[in-house]
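note to self: the first set is below, dont mix up w the second
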Amino acid sequence: MGMIKGVLREELENSKKIKQGYEKALKANPGGCIVKKIIKGHSYYYLAIRDGKKVKFIYKGKVLSKDFLAELKKQKRLRKKYKDNIVKLNKQIKFLEKSLHGKEDV
């Protein structure tokens, strides 16, 4: 039984390290969405990013390049993937912690 617990502890440590990596990647990739504001009849584009309870608007220009939009879509896909993986890892960590403490949820 000691060998199995050793493997479970090792897997728990690995899962926590991977989760930290995903969380660090999420912080490095701020996300946000494009907002179009019309001011005095002219269109301006901003990147809206939540900072705590406030929303910050970062000016991006009158016209957005296709490269910028493609990069934004790529970042959104990555953020979703990271968030989904963190949810899975949280479940796995919870299961491993229960297993190490002798509680099995079947």
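second set (the one i keep forgetting abt)
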Amino acid sequence: MNNTIKIKNRKAKFEFEFLDKHIAGIKLSGTEIKAIRMGKAAITESFCEFHNHELFVINMTVEEYSHASHFNHNPKSERKLLMKRRELRKLEKEVKNSGLTIVPLLLFINERGLAKLQIALAKGKKIYDKRETIKDRESKVRLARIKKDFN
């Protein structure tokens, strides 16, 4: 199987501080998995919510499959995440009690050809934390330039 599909949520690293990471399967229809294998998906604006003790990813965009007929899927529909019941209970308790959120980080195809979503239990960063992140990144770039000029 082609294992090169890795769709990242680059904005999440800047907006959130990750506390715990998990891998979840996604319940997809036939045209959705074909579109993901072609790399036509985005998780930038997506987030996860609980409905009746089940976890769903919301606002994940999977573009319509070009070779499908009228049986194509809805690009922005909610998709159920597949995890062990024990993990779901633990995550739901954390979200309800602590006010944390669940953010998708990476959508990928595993070695068996199944679509998986890496999710993280996250806490939102404050504005001063974001400024600190920018400052650290700029100092690393400056240091790399100095090292390059020195060599």
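remember for set 2: The radius of gyration is 18 Å.
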